[in-house]
Write a structure and sequence with these properties.
Distance between the termini: 77 Å
Strand content: 25-35%
Helix content: 10-25%
Largest sheet: 8 strands, mixed
Number of helices: 7
Oligomer: single chain
Structural class: alpha/beta
Low-confidence stretches: 1-42, 61-65, 129-149
Order of helices and strands: EEEEEEEEEEEEHHEEEEEEHHEEEEHHH
Shape: elongated
Number of domains: 1
Radius of gyration: 23 Å
């Protein structure tokens, strides 16, 4: 087996040449070189970068270039390599192999970056996104949730299902933006992935989830994107009575039965400031809504709020309601006083 190498490198990608990346790197080949050893290598299409520890990599068109043009990186072998604190911007990995590779701490990509016809067999994709939408969270004033510093890039459903992380039912610490191809076009709306029994802690979903299976899925600090009430109610958390610290973005939770459910720390947020999370006719009887944020929701009524454990127990501090609803509540409490 090859020795593992520790790299600190910068990729400069050029579109007008077979030269894809000129790489300046510090090599710490533990058994062969001193820590001061430096050399320059050239990465071309078809290069072999397998079984390496790739650390603090920046992959970009040119430093400071704001162009949105994608550059193709073709047929590169990254098998069994480990990516740590990697930044990739506007790159299309095409026909590249990541078999057995590990995407670890701080892997981050622009939303324009994607993988096309790559091989992710037995790849580990725990990227440890650094976001916290708990108490105090990262919210814009109008209820738009803005979380997720790390992004794995646009990846196909086939590739996700090839990974070791998916097969082992643990996708924790990933930012997932998934597509399929339909008639040669990218399809983001009709993704059908079976997440049943999966551990989905700290997962930031960035594609519509309405056709996915969440039966007995385990959520914690999870951002759900266009999920439905039926999916939420099928999770392990719901069945155990505690759906806490979940961000619902553009979800349709109409008619959901949240009676007696602990919803502490949940965010009911806008989707890019446009589509609100729907709560029409949802049942909140005796639900715990401590530290919940409802400002990005639609369809919530005063009667729903008054049915909660918090209202009945006079424990509404920290609950953020839509402005109109908060005024109604303040007005009614003023009359009562």
């Amino acid at each position: 087996m090859k020795n593992l190498f520790l790299f600190t490198l910068l990729f400069f990608i050029f579109a007008d040449s077979t030269l894809v990346a000129e790489v300046t790197l510090e090599v710490f080949a533990r058994s062969r070189m001193s820590e001061d050893t430096k050399k320059t290598v050239v990465l071309k299409n078809g290069a072999d970068f397998s079984q390496l520890e790739l650390r603090q990599i920046v992959i970009c068109l040119n430093p400071g270039d704001d162009s949105l043009d994608l550059i193709d990186l073709l047929d590169v072998n990254f098998n069994k390599s480990c990516f740590i604190r990697v930044l990739a911007d506007n790159v299309a990995f095409k026909h590249c192999s990541f078999r057995g590779a590990v995407f670890e701490e701080g892997f981050s990509a622009s939303e324009a970056m994607f993988y096309d016809d790559c091989d992710f067999t037995d790849t580990v994709i725990h990227c440890r996104p650094k976001f916290d939408f708990g108490r105090g969270g990262t919210l814009c004033a109008d209820g738009v949730l803005n979380i997720g510093e790390n992004d794995f890039g646009l990846i196909s459903q086939k590739n996700i299902e090839q990974t070791a992380s998916f097969k082992q039912k643990d996708l924790s610490g990933t930012v997932l933006n998934v597509y399929n191809k339909k008639n040669g076009e990218l399809d983001y709306e009709n993704i059908k992935i079976d997440f049943s029994d999966c551990k989905l802690w700290n997962v930031n979903f960035k594609f519509p989830l309405k056709y996915c299976n969440f039966e007995n899925a385990d959520l914690r600090m999870t951002k759900l994107f266009k999920a439905t009430a039926k999916q939420v109610c099928s999770t392990k958390n719901y069945k155990e009575g505690a759906v806490v610290n979940i961000a619902f973005c553009g979800c349709d939770l109409s008619n959901a039965d949240f009676s007696n459910i602990n919803l502490t720390g949940c965010f009911f947020a806008h989707l890019d400031g446009l589509e609100k999370t729907l709560l029409k006719d949802a049942n909140f009887t005796n639900a715990v809504i401590s530290q919940c944020y409802f400002r990005g929701s639609e369809g919530l009524t005063l009667s729903q709020i008054k049915s909660t454990w918090n209202y009945k127990s006079k424990r509404m501090s920290g609950v953020v309601l839509p402005d109109k609803l908060q005024k109604e509540l303040d007005a009614e409490e003023g009359k009562i006083k």
